[in-house]
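note to self: dont lose this again. the chain is below, predicted strucutre after it. 454 aa total, dont forget to put it in the shared folder this time
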Amino acid sequence: MSEAVFQIFSNALFGGAELIYAMLFVAFVRPFLPGRGRWIKLASVLAVYLILNSVCPYGSFILILTLVMLAVAKCLGLPKSLVFLLTLLYFNARISGGLLVQSPYFIMEQFFPQSSAMPERFLFYSSLLTMLLLLSHVVLLAVMLYAIQQRLRKQRLTLRRRELCYISLIPTAGILFGQLIARLLFEVKDGVLLQLYERHPAFLAVVPALALLFYAGTYLTIVFQQGMAALQEEQSSRYVEQQQTQAIRARIHEAEQFYAHIRELKHEMRGHMTNIKSLARNGEYDSLVDYIVKMDENKSDFELTLQTGNPVTDVIVNDIRRRSLDLGIRFQLDFHYPELGAYDTFDMGIILQNLLQNAVEACEKVNEGARFIELSSKRKGRFFLIEVKNSFSGEVVFGPDGLPVTSKKEDVFLHGIGLANVRREAEKYMGELELNIQPQEFVVTVLLQERSVL
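---
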């Protein structure tokens, strides 16, 4: 191979490698982009990467690309914290992978020493080794990025400032370490070019080991943060469940008081009828009318408009109905509580409370006049189906768990877990939760199965 051909081959090889690196970066970011206009966004990211890579030195390219990605994060539909983390993780993996393959490349070079007698053969072997180096680096980088990508997609991270600092610490150190090794890799001494691994052979093992530790440390930090987030979410879920349990207990107490009033009313009805007959016989019709009006007022104080067949669900449904009337929401009910003993009252109360609460919050974002909630149930054999339909506006974003991601900023850990609680209650009865989005309508279906009583 002549020197001119070697030069052309090297330029083409490194240019193709940079294009592949850019495509790997785009592929790494792709799963986190929103669906609308995704391909246009990916093409833009690819163009930005290639343009900056062609005009910026590699050391400053990392910083400049990170800043540009942060600047266009809103256009990509991603939070800046996630864009920063993805860029950081990419370059950490790229640098760590490069250091891992650099040592074997140096060792292989020693088998093909430069010879002035056969320059063509040396250039050929050098081209072959360079191609193997880049190919192995590309393959290794693809594997490393895929592993991190799958880890990130497995569970959503809440990237607040503190969490972002924790996760960014190790990959940042890995990038700086790689930049340091790159500057020390070659040194000219007394007119002779010396490599780091020639001066310090121990680095052939130390450098790739440290690079692997930086990558593994980054991966394990993500795993740790996801575990902490899952634990915190579980604690928040338990807290909400405790609050709901207390609320259900209060509803049971209210229902008991209500039916106690009903029993008192039945007991007092005989006396009332005696008084009414007495007033009628004596012709005191004005007093009779006042007496009946007063009885009607006392009766309305503890009247439940909607009846479901269970005192707890009666109170829950009627509370939601009153809230709906205040907010201009049309509330329609076709719910009948299943036979007693088939399902626990607490579980049913938690399911209805969460479903109806979410429905009310969704309707509040809809224009008045188009707000509605429909609660219905069906019974077939051992199966009991609960369905809640409600109007909604906007776009629903689903998380990795298949449930909608909350858009609330305050107390984020206490929101967005209502449906998770419903799913957990459904699983107690070997059931499932199903979500269906139709035009301007959100439908939640809960399927329950009677548990066998031994």
